[in-house]
Specification:
By secondary structure, this protein is α+β, with helices and mostly antiparallel strands. The chain has 4 helices and 5 strands, in the order βααββββαα. It has helices spanning about 25-40, 45-55, 115-120, 135-144; strands spanning about 5-10, 55-65, 75-85, 90-100, 100-115. The protein has a 5-stranded antiparallel sheet. A hairpin with a 2-residue loop joins strand 4 and strand 5 (about 100-115).
Length: about 140
């Protein structure tokens, strides 16, 4: 397996709960941001893909483990690795680290679907599974 893509984030007040630790659901937001930046680093922007290719990604399932808390002002590294790659979906493994301490990890299943842009062109395929665009698929194969 190749080295994971890494994206760094700072924990702000808005990320924490009344106990002063990162609210558990926010790890999903951090994972989402890292996936978006990973795709950008590969040369692909999701909004451009939606308009040009009529395709977009949706999360179809998540499984997350919480191991240690993150707190206000922590600097985290969020990783992204491809575990499975299909023509219309992928399974990604993501982790949240504070220095050398693993805080959270998850498996995220992503599907590629026809976007509403396609439907607006008179094709009624809104949110039906579709192939990952060829150029992006080729870049993902290189990552795996």
């Amino acid at each position: 397996m190749t080295t994971a893509y890494k994206h760094s984030i700072r924990i702000y007040w808005e990320d924490t709960d009344a106990g002063g630790v990162v609210f558990y659901a926010n790890y999903l937001k951090f994972f989402e941001r890292a996936r978006t930046e990973w795709l950008r680093a590969l040369g692909f922007e999701q909004e451009a893909m939606r308009h040009a290719e009529g395709a977009m990604f949706i999360v179809s399932s998540t499984q997350v483990r919480y191991l240690r808390p993150a707190r206000l002002d922590d600097w985290l590294t969020i990783t992204v690795e491809i575990h499975e790659l299909g023509r219309a979906s992928m399974v990604l493994f993501q982790q949240a680290w504070r220095a050398d301490t693993l805080l959270s990890e998850g498996e995220i299943r992503i599907g590629c679907v026809a976007s509403d842009i396609v439907a607006s062109k008179g094709q009624s395929q809104d949110f039906k599974p579709t192939r990952i665009p060829a150029a992006l698929f080729a870049a993902l194969v290189e990552q795996k």
